[in-house]
Amino acid sequence: MSYREMKDRKRKDYPYILEYRTRWHIFFYSWNMHVLGDDHMNNSVYNFLYDSVVNTYLIQECARHPPTSPQYGLVVHSHSDFFGSIAFPAVADLGLRVNKLGKSSVTYEVALFEQGVEDVKSVGELIHVFVDRESGRPAANGMSNSLKEGLQKLLVTKSKL
Fold first, then answer.
1. At CA 127, angle to CA 137 and CA 90, rounded to 5?
2. What is this structure's pTM?
């Protein structure tokens, strides 16, 4: 996907939206304070938000219970492209979609919007490989039915673009 395609993303491109309230955090790894008084979220916080929207969806829509589910997702790849910053006390809208669904893996696309602002602030990608809790290996029979069915609701095919 090109830089232009990502930068042109809109909320309507994401079937699931999660509202997230930013919070003030005094540790420097989370917020950067500039000489001019401009504060913005550090890149690590964006990754935290991406992980949060994915796991919120898995819990709410795919019957996942992180400590006890027989399968769990390992992040094997992630990246972000940044187009603008967001700062406390802004409210973020996190958009989630699935771009690819395999037997035991899923490729998510996550977008961060500031509430009330149309331009996307960042677009990220996470790839989960679902593994069996007991073996730590990719699920032999693939993802569970409840997981696959929940993720299919977010699958965006070329015909939906």
1. 135
2. 0.86
Query: Tokens 């540790």 sit at which residue?
Result: 27
- Residues making up the chain, counted from first to last: 161
pLDDT range class, residue 66, cuts 50, 70, 90: confident
Q: Where are the domains of the chain?
A: 3-156
Q: Is the CATH code 3.40.50.620 the one for domain 3-156?
A: no
Q: What element of type H or E holds 6? A: helix 3-7
Distances (CA, A) of 134 to 1, 19, 58, 74, 105: 36, 34, 20, 14, 18
For 13, the token pair is: 């491109």
pLDDT tens digit string along 7-52?
999 999 999 999 998 776 544 444 444 444 555 566 667 788 899 9
